[in-house]
Design brief:
The chain is of the alpha+beta class. It contains two helices and twelve strands; from the N terminus they run αβββββββββββαβ. The radius of gyration is 27 Å and the shape is flat.
Length: about 300
Amino acid sequence: MKKILLLAACLSLGFSSYAQTEDELKADQAPKKAEIAKLQGEVDALQAKIDALPGWKYGAFGTVGVNLSSFDNWYAQGSPNVNTGNIGITANGFANLKEEKFFWRNALNVNLGWVKFDDKDDATDDDSFREGTDVFNISSLYGRNIAKNLAASGLVEYRTTLLNNFNDPGYLDAGIGATWTPLENLVVVVHPLNYNFVFAKDDSVFESSLGAKILVDYTRKIGAINFKSNLSAFQSYKSSDLSNFTWVNSFGYTLWKNIGVGFEFGLRGNKQEAVNYQTGLESAAGVTPTTTFDNVDNKVQSYYLIGLNYSI
């Protein structure tokens, strides 16, 4: 009995000693965390001053997502012998020049994806990777300062796909107006005089028109986090059927050196693309197309990608 009591006392003393040691370590850790947070704030403030200096600023970050799998004799599923794959790549880059009287901002966004579903029991099945997500967007904005946060500006922006149907359709916006920069990392472009050139083989659906261009871009790096949100919208003066918008959001979190995790999602609304897609399905089915701007099911387009991230 005495041995049991002695053992219990030793265990109790050990746990008490461990608990005290843990509390002491946490107490020592707290001020160090506070000191790190203070230093990080000072680093961010210095970086903000560096970003505000005249001259060129460059940056880029991207995400790679890969998912590959293979099943053999896996009878629980409908296709027991199958190879599947999903590969996605995104890239966001910028090259910005800031001077006392003017600025020049250039941006690039690319998102490419491939998918594969190969049923090894089906000899007619396609065993190759097929194009999935396909986004290409490049823009150039020049502004001449007329006030502290206001500039007269001109914008050229081009959007299309790369892997499939390059420049069919392709969109080229060119216009003039004003740019407002209320924050160092926020740019708001309003161009009431903008022409939206649309390039496509089927000109019965796609049409160029005059309208207003609105672009909002917020790009920032806070510590290990890269963030970019870009909204590009065109409002046609001729018809709302010819209007469109694209909104892309990209996040990157660095875990080790320049490697981390990334996430990107995008939304798009384009009635011309919806009509073109539906009429294409009807033609492929051997029926006379009946889809028009008045009866098309114009759903919001979307995509997302999660994977490894690399920042420069």
